[in-house]
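Pipeline run #58 for the internal structure catalog. This entry was flagged by the ingest filter as a single-chain record with no existing model, so it goes straight to prediction. Upstream metadata was stripped on purpose; only the residue string is passed forward. Reviewer on rotation: M.T. Logging verbosity set to normal.
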Amino acid sequence: MRRRLFISLGAAGMCSALAGCGNDEQEGFNLRDVPSGPIVLGFSQVGSESGWREANTASIKKAAERNRITLKFDNADGDQKKQIAAIQSYIAAKVNVIAFSPVVETGWDAVLRQARDAGIPVVLTDRLIETADESLYVSSIGAEFASEGNLAALYLENDYEDTSGHINVVELLGTRGSSPTKLRTEGFRETAARHGKLRVMDSETGNWTVAGGEAAMKKLLRRVKKIDAVFAQNDDMGLGAVKALQAAGKKPGTDVRIVTVDATRAGLTALAAGKLNYVVECSPEIGEQLMAVVVDLFFGGQVQKRVESQKAVFDSDSAADALPDRTY
């Protein structure tokens, strides 16, 4: 039986995709007053668009409770304006630390300057932002999205190593403008271009949902005559692709191979059943890592600029092994 395989990007030989992801320590963030009373964290979640996101929210709420941190929580429902308003409310409430998973990469400088001017450190979770001033946030916690794309292409390419000719691949993308969408795409295409065996024929946005993935896959089936494989940027969109392929009379996992990212219980169940071929893990359970950073910041300690979450790659056998203990 195959074992669960934990992989670092170095093992895959693709360090260039993770430039800037070192463990540089930040100087202790000086709060205006001597810390006293409860630690208060303001957290803005990007939404509740998937099982992964719901597990991420649950992890943060449980970890806050376990660590006796007062949590002010808001759900942005995928709306950047709503998320900015939540951050501004945390600033007005004078919380100790602000954390958020950004809806998109750009457009955060103004509100994060307000937080900095108020003496409140900001932590990014799951996703990243695009800014020329990285002092606007003190730490980011989550997966390395480019390496997830690298690994998806690597495993798919290896799956076809005994097949001659080119392999036609289509992509199901997450929300446009978000860092996981951008970086998973870049990572996948970078690795696919190394040997040229995998050819990305087309892509369509599925917005991280099963329904979105199904609709996107139907569009791609109409546009692309021959599809050998699908790279779905999360499990939910991959499960949507399964539905669309079955409706088109194709056998997912066999007629069309599918690789996804997340490793939720639903994704691993489909993988164990042979409907998916590989799943790259992107763990949502970062709550304890976030609370450790929050506590360090509250007491003026040093924190790492980048805190990476655990990842693995699953095939059908290792998925079956992992399912009994899967918590999300």
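catalog note: The longest strand covers residues 198-205.
catalog note: Residues 145-282+317-325 form a domain with the Rossmann fold fold (CATH 3.40.50.2300).
status: ready for reviewer M.T.
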